[in-house]
Amino acid sequence: MDTRLTAEQDEIRRTLRELLHKRCGAEELRAAVDSPAGYDPALWSALADQLGLPGLALPESYGGVGCSVTELALACEETGRALAPSPLTATSVLAAPLILALGTEAQRAELLPRLAAGTRTATLAVPGPALAAALALTGGNSGFSAGGGRAGGVQARHTAAGWRLYGQVDQVLDGHSAGLLVVAAHTGGFARSRTLLFLVAGDAEGVVRARQTALDATRPQGRVQLRDVAAELLGTPDADVLPALAALGDTAAAVLAAEAVGAAGRALEKTVEYVKQREQFGRAIGSFQAVKHRLADVYVQVQAARSAACYAAWATAHGELVGGLALAQALEALRVAAAEGIQLHGGIGFTWEHEAHLYFKRASGDELLFGPVHRLRAHAADAARLFEGNEVTV
Fold first, then answer.
1. Most buried of 29, 166, 244, 330 (most Cβ within 10 A)?
2. Measured distance CA(225)–CA(203) in Å, rounded
3. Can you give the residue ranges of the Acyl-CoA dehydrogenase/oxidase C-terminal domain (predicted)?
C-alpha cells in the first residue's frame, strides 16, 4: 500500500477543500440545515458540475468519473471536515452502488447517469435502527427482514399489474427529499419470506414523506410512508440482495470512516486554534501542560484513525473487508475529539451558537445509524475469527 496521494487525488482534495471553504462556512451550514431540504441545492450543483462528486466512483460508461472507492473516501474526508450537509452519502455511498450491483442494464442506463450528474438524488430506505443490521455492520445480515404489516417496515405484493408496496420507513437519510427511493421490502409471506429491493419515485402516487427531527441536523432524515405504491423491482426476482447489502456495508463503512476522520481532524484543529488564543492567569491556556497532554492524546487517536481509514479505503478497492473496524476507530476518535473540544472551549463550547456541538452530534448520530463502536468492533473480531472458540457477546 502506497500512502502517497496521486496528482489526481491531491487535486480532488485541494479543489474540494477550497470550494467548501468558500461555500460551506458556519453561517452557510446553519442556513442549509434549517432549509426544508436540509442542504443547499446550489452547493450540491456546484459539487456535481465542478467536481463530478456524485459520480466519482461510478463507471464512465454510466456518466461517472471512473475513480475507485479510494477517491470517494478522500472526497468524503473533506466533506466531513466541513460537516457539509448534502445528498452525497445517501446517493453516492448507499443507493448508486446498489443500482450498479443489482440493477438490470436498462435500469443502470436509465438511472445512473442522472445520479452521476447530480440532477437526481437517491437514498436507501431501510428503517434507521435496522440500517446497520441490513448492511451487516454489527453482525451477519442473514436474518435481516424488511418487516411489513404489523411488524412495521414495508411489505411487497405482486399483482397482475406489477409490484405494490405498503408500509412505513423511519429515519431514512434524505428520505424526505430524495428523488428516487431504493426500498427494502419483505415479500413471499411466511413460508417463502425474503427481502427484495424496489425502485420508487419520490413523487409517486401514494408516497407520503416528511422530514424528521434528527440528533445530527447535518444528516437530515425523513419518514417515508408507502400507501399501496407502484414499484419496480431492482434487478431480477432471483437477485441475491443480502450479500449485496453486506458488500455495500463494508464499502460504505470505509467511506464513512474517512468522513469521520475529516470531522475529527477539523474539530481538533479548531480546539488547538482556540487554546492558543484563550488566556488564563496571564497566559494562553494551550501553554499549560495538562492541556497539551490532552490534545496530544487526541492527536494520536485521530492520526491512528486516519491511518485505519486510509487502509480501509485502499483495501476495499482491492477486495478486503476491513471497513467496519476502521469506522469504529474513526467514530471513537471523532467522539473524543469533539468532547475534548467542548471541554477545552469552556463555557462557549456548550452554547448552541458555537460549532463544537455539531461535531459531537455527528459522532453520536453516526453511531445511532451505523452501529455503536463496541458492536462494530465485536463484529469485526468475529469476522476475523479473532477469538476462535470464544464467542464475542455484546
1. 330
2. 12
3. 254-380
* List of residues 6+ apart from 23 with CB closer than 8 A: 40, 42, 43, 46
Tell me the per-residue pLDDT of 226-275, one tens digit each, with 9 for 90 and over: 999 999 999 998 888 999 999 999 999 999 999 999 999 999 999 999 99
Residues of the chain with CATH 1.20.140.10: 242-383
**pLDDT more than 90, % of the chain:** 73
Q: Does domain 7-120 have CATH number 1.10.287.110?
A: no
- Segments of the chain assigned to CATH 1.10.540.10: 7-120
Residue 316, helix vs strand vs coil: helix
Q: Return residue ranges of the chain for CATH 2.40.110.10.
A: 124-239
CA distances (Å), origin 265, targets 184, 207, 211, 383: 35, 40, 30, 29
pLDDT, tens only, 276-301: 988 888 898 888 999 999 999 999 99
Contact 256, 250 (CB under 8 A): no
Among 301, 285, 376, which residue's Cα sits nearest to residue 337? 301
Q: Which pairing describes strands 162-173 and 153-159: parallel, antiparallel, or unpaired? A: antiparallel
CATH for the 242-383 domain, from 1.10.150.170, 3.40.1710.10, 3.30.930.20, 1.20.140.10: 1.20.140.10
Cα–Cα distance, 256 to 263 (Å, whole number)? 11
> Cell 458488500 identifies what position?
247
The topology under which CATH files domain 124-239 is Butyryl-CoA Dehydrogenase, subunit A; domain 2 (2.40.110)
Q: What is the dihedral of CA 335, 85, 208, 122, to 10 degrees?
A: -100
Per-residue CA distances from 306 to 34, 161, 248, 258, 348 (Å): 31, 51, 21, 7, 28
CA dihedral 181, 237, 195, 258 (to 10 degrees): -50
